[in-house]
Amino acid sequence: MGFWDMGLIADDTALEVYDLYLARYDSGAEHAAIQAEIEERYAAVWDDIEDGCVVWFGLAHAQWECGALSPEFLAHVETLIKGKKAITHWEEIDEDDRHKRKSALARFLGKIQTPKAKPRRRRTRPR
């Protein structure tokens, strides 16, 4: 896993999931199909304490952007964050960065707990 700061999408895996979701959404795929594709693609890490969390976060962020975040999915992300599973593998970093990560997680959870006022529209590329 590679990350460049403490933000939620500042992680290679989370950004890859987020970008994949939006690309598939823009191509016309339905939300359930996109989620199934991502679950299948990341099945090996889906329940992993380290990489699994960032897959869930990238997917939750993209779904929230598009107005498709289900209450069940939100509840699981909330469990990951509040249960501190999302910070477990960050124990090796210094206290200041760990605090920044915890703050980023709290902000992220606060953001996605309220449905986006104007969900993202599908974007089509010019031909």
Notable traits:
mainly alpha, single chain, 127 residues, 56% helix, 5 helices
**Share of helical residues:** 55-70%
Strand content: under 5%
Distance between the termini: 35 Å
Report the count of strand segments: 0
Order of helices and strands: HHHHH
Give me the oligomer status: single chain
Mean pLDDT: 85
- Which structural class should the secondary elements be placed in? mainly alpha
The radius of gyration computed from the alpha-carbon positions, rounded to a whole number of angstroms, is: 15 Å
Q: State the major sheet.
A: none
The total count of helices amounts to 5
Overall geometry comes to globular
Instruction: Return residue spans where pLDDT drops below 50 for at least 5 consecutive residues.
Output: none
Care to describe what's here?
This protein is an all-alpha fold and 127 residues long. The protein has five helices and no strands. Helix 1 packs parallel to helix 3 (51-65), helix 3 packs across helix 4 (71-82) and helix 4 (71-82) packs antiparallel against helix 5. The longest helix has 18 residues, at 95-112. The termini are far apart.
How is the secondary structure organized here?
Elements: H1 12-26, H2 31-41, H3 51-65, H4 71-82, H5 95-112
State the gist of this model.
Helix content is 56%, strand content 0%. With 127 residues, the protein is mainly α.
